[in-house]
Write a structure and sequence with these properties.
The protein is mainly beta. It has a domain of 129 residues: Sandwich (Jelly Rolls), CATH 2.60.120. It is built from no helices and 11 strands. A hairpin with a 2-residue loop joins β6 and β7. 19% of the residues are buried.
């Protein structure tokens, strides 16, 4: 590779092709009619335009918020695309009932999603399940597990009065947030103390990944 010679130009000198032009003042190219002011083509391959700035200075400034067609950005606020939000979702119209093999000794996980965290961050989880009992009483609870461990603060109780007539149908809905390391994770919607006379209708479970703040550390809440 041969280094290009540097030309110490004076203000007002023409631009020399094939060499490094050095000048102490800004050079502006202004087109007075509609159209492209400067076109650069690299027919021999490689990038047709290279912008080099000092550390801490942006390599480019623009004065418009208009979208540039086919301009692909590799990073957004210093994050790759896979470090942004991700969502996993599962829904069933008719969940297994309390008298099925899904609930061993009254405990089961009828809904489950898998989500991969590209970096350390939060899993924001929400779920709801539709339950009813027309023949017996039942008090059960729902909560979330991440990779087999319960998520603190997500346990919600639900009571069904099947022998009465005031609370035959009751949903169990809960929400939670769990720190997650980079990598794959399994989120389940767990139920415990489910009676064999309790039936379940529709249910849904969603987990959204949110990366930590810009410093890469745990966000302050």
């Amino acid at each position: 590779m041969t280094a290009l010679p540097a030309i110490a130009a004076k203000v007002g000198d023409p631009v020399e092709l094939g060499v490094n032009n050095t000048v102490g003042r800004q050079t502006a190219l202004i087109r007075t009619r509609v159209g492209t002011a400067l076109a650069v083509t690299a027919k021999g391959g490689g990038s047709p335009l290279k912008l080099v700035s000092k550390d801490g200075s942006p390599p480019m400034k623009v004065n418009s918020s208009a979208k540039v067609v086919r301009l692909n950005a590799d990073r957004l606020d210093n994050r790759h695309a896979d470090a942004l939000l991700r969502v996993a979702f599962d829904v069933l119209a008719d969940l297994p009932d309390g008298d099925t093999s899904t609930f061993t000794f009254g405990e089961g996980e009828p809904l489950s999603v898998s989500i991969t965290a590209p970096t350390a961050g939060w899993l924001v989880i929400t779920g709801t399940i539709d339950a009813f009992n027309f023949t017996g009483d039942d008090t059960y609870a729902c909560f979330f597990r991440v990779d087999g461990s319960p998520v603190d603060g997500t346990t919600m109780g639900s009571k069904l009065d099947g022998t009465g007539s005031t609370n035959l149908h009751e949903d169990c809905t809960t929400h939670g947030v769990q720190e997650a390391a980079a990598g794959p994770h399994t989120v389940t919607f767990a139920l415990i103390d489910v009676g064999t006379t309790t039936d379940f209708g529709s249910g849904s479970l969603s987990a959204m990944f949110v990366p930590f703040d810009g410093t890469g550390g745990t966000s302050s809440l």
